[in-house]
């Protein structure tokens, strides 16, 4: 990123630089009277920053931070290394009755580890001040780790809070650190591009603006105690959630079982009424069938009576019928006797509703008493006239 604020904080001073394309375009500092003024001073200085600077990196220096190069630690991943140093913080750092936040990173090819510790209150004050100033903090680390990446190989003195950190740098990483209280020139140090004169004291702020903090501290102030508290809270939340799910499932099962029992009870109570309703429905179905059959029979009977009445009126004198059969297709066949089969055919053919009358078979003559009559078989289609 081409624009970033670099902040270095010690017990007695807070310095801020605005770095754009590798050069310092603005710098400011405030005197501090202890860690309690960090948040307010950081918010005040950041509020004065040039426009367009919204991100910052912070370096802790001097008596506020403890930095050591540890040796003979096992080869671990970065996350496990941080964890190992945090769990044994009391072995390497002074707590003074206050919780510490630690960070660790590999230092050189000889297996050394650069470890640092800062009080949780200091880190919380940094985060609070950045938030009040509307800054996004990209990382919090040590001034020693940031400056080492900008210095050449050899021994270097980094002053802060009246103490000196004598750092042996090799390949951009510190391989040995020794803190002393020897008085020296507080302005000594590498020059800072964009600052003249005594601008060397802003070198740690300039370095942290350009390089990533190594080691870095977790911005949420994580440490073994807080991690354990977070885990306990997560376990409690998980237990409460599981209990809520169990309670909801139990209530659901109870309600379902209650509904099933209620339904069964209602079915038992309504059983006789349902059986009676089914019997009534069955009887009604049978009655409908009987009524349909009776209506069909009445219709057929009325048609047969109408046909007989028609034939009775139509037959010539002395002619009579022996049998009558009507098929489903409406074809009527009659057998009878009469003086003349031809006259009988002609008379029936003139009757209303009679279609296609014809003689079937031959006509036989028979004697009935002293008279000769003809026996005939006639067939025709009868289509009764619809009432007007």
Description:
- With 388 residues, the chain is of the alpha+beta class.
- The protein has two domains: 228 residues, Nucleotidyltransferase, domain 5, CATH 3.30.420.380; 72 residues, 2-Layer Sandwich (Gyrase A, domain 2), CATH 3.30.1360.
- It is 39% helix and 31% strand.
- The protein is built from eight helices and 17 strands.
- The chain has a six-stranded mixed sheet with strand order 3-2-1-4-8-12, sandwiched between helices.
- Strand 2 and strand 3 form a beta hairpin.
- Helix 1 runs parallel beside helix 4.
- The chain is rod-shaped.
- About 2% of the residues have low confidence.
Task: Please give the structural blueprint.
Blueprint: E1 3-9, E2 13-20, E3 23-31, H1 38-47, E4 55-60, E5 65-70, H2 78-87, H3 89-92, E6 100-107, E7 112-119, H4 120-133, E8 136-142, H5 143-148, E9 154-160, E10 163-170, E11 173-180, H6 203-210, E12 216-217, H7 224-314, E13 320-326, E14 331-338, H8 341-349, E15 354-359, E16 364-368, E17 371-382
Parallel strand pairs: 1-4, 4-8
Antiparallel strand pairs: 1-2, 2-3, 5-7, 6-7, 8-12, 9-10, 10-11, 13-14, 14-17, 15-17, 16-17
According to CATH, what is the topology of the largest domain? Answer: Nucleotidyltransferase, domain 5
What's the mean pLDDT score? 81
Radius of gyration (Å): 58 Å
Reading off the top of the CATH hierarchy, the class of the largest domain is best stated as Alpha Beta
The biggest beta sheet is recorded as: 6 strands, mixed
Question: What would you call the shape?
Answer: rod-shaped
Number of helices: 8
Order of helices and strands: EEEHEEHHEEHEHEEEHEHEEHEEE
Report the portion of residues in β strands.
25-35%
Count of strand segments: 17
**C-alpha end-to-end distance:** 105 Å
């Amino acid at each position: 990123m081409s624009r970033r604020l670099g902040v270095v904080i010690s017990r007695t001073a807070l310095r801020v630089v605005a770095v754009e394309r590798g050069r310092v375009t603005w710098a400011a500092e405030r005197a501090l009277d202890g860690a309690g003024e960090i948040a307010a001073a950081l918010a005040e200085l950041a509020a004065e920053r040039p426009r367009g600077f919204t991100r910052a990196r912070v370096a802790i220096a001097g008596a506020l931070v403890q930095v050591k190069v540890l040796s003979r630690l096992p080869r671990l991943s970065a996350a496990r290394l941080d964890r190992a140093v945090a769990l044994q913080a009391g072995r390497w750092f002074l707590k003074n009755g206050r919780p510490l936040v630690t960070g660790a990173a590999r230092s050189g090819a000889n297996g050394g580890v650069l470890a640092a510790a800062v009080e949780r209150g200091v880190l919380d004050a940094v985060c609070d001040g950045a938030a009040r100033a509307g800054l996004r903090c990209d990382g919090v680390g040590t001034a020693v780790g940031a400056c080492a990446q900008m210095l050449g190989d050899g021994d270097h003195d980094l002053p802060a809070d009246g103490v000196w950190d004598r750092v042996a740098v090799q390949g951009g990483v510190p391989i040995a650190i020794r803190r002393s209280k020897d008085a020296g020139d507080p302005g000594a140090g590498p020059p800072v591009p964009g600052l003249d004169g005594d601008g060397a004291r802003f070198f740690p702020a300039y370095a942290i603006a350009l390089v990533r903090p190594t080691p870095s501290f977790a911005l949420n102030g994580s440490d073994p105690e807080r991690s354990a508290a977070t885990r306990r809270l997560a376990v409690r939340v998980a237990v409460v959630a599981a209990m809520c799910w169990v309670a909801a499932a139990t209530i659901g099962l109870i309600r379902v079982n209650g509904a099933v029992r209620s339904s069964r009870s209602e079915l038992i109570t309504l059983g006789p009424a349902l059986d009676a309703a089914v019997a009534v429905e069955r009887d009604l179905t049978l009655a409908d069938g009987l009524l349909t059959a009776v209506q069909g029979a009445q219709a057929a009977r009325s048609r047969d009576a109408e046909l007989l009445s028609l034939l009775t009126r139509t037959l010539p004198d002395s002619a009579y019928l022996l049998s009558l059969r009507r098929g489903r297709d409406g074809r009527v066949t009659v057998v009878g006797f009469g003086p003349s089969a031809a006259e009988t055919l002609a008379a029936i053919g003139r009757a209303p509703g009679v279609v296609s009358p014809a003689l079937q078979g031959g006509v036989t003559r028979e004697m009935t008493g002293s008279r000769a009559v003809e026996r005939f078989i006639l067939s025709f289609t009868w289509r009764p006239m619809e009432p007007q």
